[in-house]
Design brief:
By secondary structure, this protein is of the alpha/beta class. The protein is built from nine helices and five strands. It has a five-stranded parallel sheet, sandwiched between helices. The termini are close together. The structure holds BIS(adenosine)-5'-tetraphosphate.
Length: 190
């Protein structure tokens, strides 16, 4: 199975690239951000619990993320693998992913880290705020999300470097150029 993590700061283009990767390589696109937004839109109990974390720019606690992920992953059928978008975001989530995959006799192929300077992340999310309607696309929350990324999520990089699964990708440039680099990287590892 072709299991890949796409990683990077908030607004680094994980969602944008995941759609293209899923289509080209026949993968299931599993975005924890999209799953959480769907729960909020549906007004579910979980959606009510997570909305304040998201609106304030904080990570949703690991237990809720793992709960929503395990509900979804068992329903994936007829795919060549999964592109994990926005997960893992903490070391505990990275360890949980190892367990989830090994229970299924699967492995991770690689983690692609979209590297984008903080100022560009900020600009992209401010631009996205004009149309996204997302409660977390506002100047104050954007700054908080970037801080949270450096504090809690960036340490995940070392975890995957130690496993020899880490691959940096220059995430600043056209969507097409970034996707071409990602595609050749995946093909080289297959
Ligand atoms: P996510 O939904 O994962 O969203 P994101 O980090 O904001 O965006 P992404 O990197 O996917 O960027 P996009 O392609 O849209 O997370 C939202 C929140 O959910 C988190 O803050 C957290 O609270 C919670 N959450 C989610 N997963 C969690 C987890 N595992 N644990 C705990 N909490 C979790 O791109 C951004 C913008 O840039 C778009 O407008 C796009 O069009 C544009 N863009 C993309 N590529 C570009 C390029 N190359 N050039 C110019 N613009 C580009």
């Amino acid at each position: 199975m072709l299991n890949i993590v796409i990683f990077g700061g908030p607004g680094s283009g994980k969602g944008t690239q995941s759609v293209l990767i899923a289509e080209k390589f026949g993968l299931e696109h599993l975005s924890t951000g999209d799953l959480l937004r769907a729960e909020m839109a549906a007004g579910s109990e979980l959606g009510k619990v997570v909305q304040s974390f998201i609106a304030q720019g904080n990570l949703v606690p690991d237990k809720w993320i793992l709960n929503i992920l395990s509900k979804t992953i068992d329903h994936i059928k007829d795919k060549k693998g999964v592109i994990f978008d926005g997960f893992p975001r903490t070391i505990a989530q990275a360890e949980a992913l190892d367990e989830i995959l090994s229970k299924r006799n699967q492995k991770l192929l690689l983690l692609l880290d979209l590297q984008v300077p903080d100022e560009v992340l900020q600009e992209r999310m401010l631009f996205r705020s004009k149309t996204s309607g997302r409660t977390d696309d506002n100047p104050e929350t954007i700054k908080k999300r970037i801080d949270v990324y450096h504090q809690l999520t960036a340490p995940v990089i070392e975890y995957y470097k130690n496993k020899g699964l880490y691959q940096a990708i220059k995430g600043n440039g056209s969507v097409e150029k970034i996707f071409a680099e990602i595609s050749s990287c995946i093909s080289a590892h297959q």
